[in-house]
TrEMBL record:
Organism: Parathalassolituus penaei
Highest taxon, organism lineage: Bacteria
Upper lineage: Bacteria, Pseudomonadati, Pseudomonadota, Gammaproteobacteria, Oceanospirillales
EC numbers, comma separated: 3.1.4.1
Pfam families: FAN1_HTH, VRR_NUC
Protein name according to UniProt: phosphodiesterase I
VRR-NUC domain location: 465-582
Known cofactor(s): Mg(2+); Mn(2+)
Length: 585
DNA sequence: ACCAACCACCCAGCC
DNA sequence: ACAAAGCTCG
DNA sequence: GGCTGGGTGGTTCGAGCTTTG
């Protein structure tokens, strides 16, 4: 039912946007070579630019000409000739050129197993002494390895596989594209597909007040640091597969760029988060010395928590000293919750070692236990697992039977209302906040001075809260902005609430002072405090309400949940943990 | 440490 | 922050 | 001859990736 059709050269139009943006920005953000490529691209004929973009947006920069064909480019001869004469593409015809210019791995990857066996099957059988069918079931890596050996030994010739011509994009093209993307988006997570998804209606963005400078970086150094950091960022798969050597190598590489990130708070935070992940993997590989060392250079959560846990084993007094430092200057609410639980355990351990030392002033007497959250208990039928997919759902139904109806809200309710209420502030025209149309949040949302830079908008919203119109505003905004990306709004949830009619009920059920307190807590750390909210909102028959965090068997309170519960307690907001256990038989 | 599964076919080895 | 289609591997 | 096990060659399938709009 997708009626939207993109123009035939949509990809070229989108790329043109990148080029235009690069042209607007200060020249020193591109290298001389990049500036040259940018201006050369602007001079290409429409057809040739289209072909260039098609090639650029594919993996690698080596292609088989016979595999390239697009409906909107019926003739490739002319455009490719233009690209060749302008120096973008090299057409490789002869074997000598191939050997000089193209790495074997890159070249082998152009062919599939069948093609390799068809061209070289007999020779390979001769070389390996393995039957053809056996060869066919070899792993691709293994097959490539044999081919490479035979090629270097001269037993096989690359041109045996020549079906047409090879086209090679000039090698610094991918670097250039990266720079263009960085200049446009300010990051390397977003790409040209943003345009397509938006134009197909699959992603909707607020109509943003773009900054006049449009510039995500203030210097080339900053841009390069950003790029380097991105390439060193360990993704989950890499991390899981990494061994000690891989980690050490990555650590060394990160050390090398460290001085390039120290000037930039944001880059530095990112650097520390990456190192923390590296150290966590070192822990899993039983390399505590490495982990301790690495954590020490990270001033962020959970680096210090992990460090304290490791120190508790090898040097518990040192661990306690770190706890003390963290207690008076914690990185986050989560870290503080960790200390709440951990310091007493550490104290018990140290008390056995040297009670006197522990009781010395300033060693542990700074610690004060916080009140524990209120608790409730509920028995589950023994077959609850068959009847409900989730324990929260089971509790919801059972409580409803007892005359306490409710809604499964988790983070969605309060955080969505927050996002809707503060919408004008979040998308306010503040210098440097927005520089491209695909941002779902202002660039500085997580900076400490975010709110102080938006006092005017804040005051207006405060006034709406005072006057009571905020309830209408939030609902109207939900309708007006439905589906538009916002870092706080869960649209399916909001849409369900409007449709089923309970959204307004809930807004009114929770008293304004409670809403205020919850919003305040989110503002304290808008990234971390978006999660950890209780599972259920119970609408008590007397007109009150209660927030319930459900804990089934084997589940325990997370740090972020404790943080929220502690805040609720301090603000007299009715919240509790409900422990659900199967009925004892 | 390693990995597709399935089927039909051939052939040698064995009773 | 999507879905269909094609290719490739195992 | 009939049965068996191992090797062979062909097909089909699911999962995952790339390309596309
Ligand atoms: Mn939950
Ligand atoms: Mn829960």
């Amino acid at each position: 039912m997708n009626t939207i059709t993109l123009p035939p050269f949509y990809y070229r139009d989108n790329f043109q946007q990148l080029l235009d943006r690069a042209g607007l920005l200060p020249a020193e953000l591109q290298t001389e070579r990049e500036r040259q490529l940018t201006s050369m691209a602007l001079l290409l004929s429409p057809q040739a630019l289209a072909l260039l973009v098609r090639l650029l947006t594919r993996k690698g920069n080596l292609f088989r000409s016979e595999r390239l064909a697009w409906a909107e480019l019926p003739d490739l001869i002319e455009p490719v000739a233009e690209l060749v004469s302008a120096g973008w593409v090299r057409v490789i015809t002869a074997r000598a050129e191939l050997n000089d210019l193209v790495g074997v791995d890159e070249w082998l990857a152009l062919y599939n197993r069948d093609e390799l066996l068809q061209a070289w099957g007999d020779q390979l059988v001769g070389i390996t002494g393995v039957s053809r069918s056996k060869l066919k079931s070899w792993r691709r890596e293994q097959l490539d390895e044999i081919c490479k050996q035979a090629l270097t030994a001269g037993q096989l010739q690359r041109c045996d596989l020549q079906t047409a011509l090879w086209w090679q994009l000039v090698s610094d093209c991918s670097q250039w594209l990266e720079t263009l993307l960085l200049l446009y988006f300010g990051n390397l997570q977003q790409s040209l597909t943003e345009f397509v998804l938006r134009d197909l209606g699959l992603a909707r963005y607020e109509d943003l007040p773009l900054d006049a400078s449009l510039c995500p970086f203030h210097s080339r150094t900053q841009l390069d640091a950003h790029r380097a950091l991105f390439h060193l960022s360990p993704d989950d798969d890499w991390l899981k597969a990494a061994d000690a050597d891989a980690l050490q190598l990555r650590w060394n590489a990160l050390q090398d760029i460290r001085e390039r990130v120290v000037d930039d708070e944001w880059l530095q935070r990112r650097w520390m988060r990456m190192v923390t992940r590296l150290a966590r993997q070192a822990e899993r590989l039983a390399l505590p010395e490495l982990a301790l060392d690495w954590y020490q250079s990270c001033e962020c959560h959970p680096a210090r928590e992990r460090r304290i846990r490791l120190l508790a084993i090898r040097d518990p007094w040192q661990a306690l000293a770190e706890c003390r430092a963290a207690w008076f200057n914690s990185y986050s609410e989560d870290e503080w919750q960790f200390l709440q639980g951990f310091v007493p355990r550490l104290g018990k351990q140290l008390g056995k070692l040297d009670r006197q030392r522990l009781q010395t002033s300033g060693v542990i007497d700074w610690y004060q236990a916080a009140a524990l959250p209120a608790e409730q208990f509920l028995n589950l039928p023994t077959d609850w697992k068959q009847r409900w997919p989730r324990v929260e759902q089971a509790v919801l139904d059972l409580l409803a039977e007892q005359g306490r109806p409710g809604i499964y809200v988790e983070n969605a309710l309060i955080v969505s209302v927050f996002g809707l209420l503060y919408w004008p502030l979040l998308f306010a025209a503040v210098e440097g906040a927005f520089f491209h149309p695909f941002q779902y949040r202002p660039d500085d949302l997580y900076e400490p001075d975010f709110l102080t830079r938006r006092q005017l908008w804040l005051q207006e919203i405060e006034a709406d809260l005072d006057s009571g119109v905020w309830i209408d505003r939030v609902q109207q905004r939900a309708i007006d902005k439905m589906g538009i990306q916002n870092p706080f709004v869960y649209w399916e949830f909001v849409a369900a609430g409007l449709e089923q009619g309970w959204f307004e009920t809930v807004l009114k059920r929770i008293p304004l002072e409670h809403w205020r307190a919850m919003f305040e807590f989110i503002w304290q750390d808008p990234k971390a405090h978006r999660s950890g909210l209780p599972d259920l909102l119970i609408l008590e028959p007397d007109g009150g309400y209660q927030l319930l965090e459900v804990k089934g068997p084997g589940d325990q309170l997370q740090a972020n949940q404790k943080s929220w519960l502690a805040w609720f307690a301090s603000q007299n907001i009715p919240a509790a943990v409900l422990y659900a256990r199967p009925e004892p038989v």
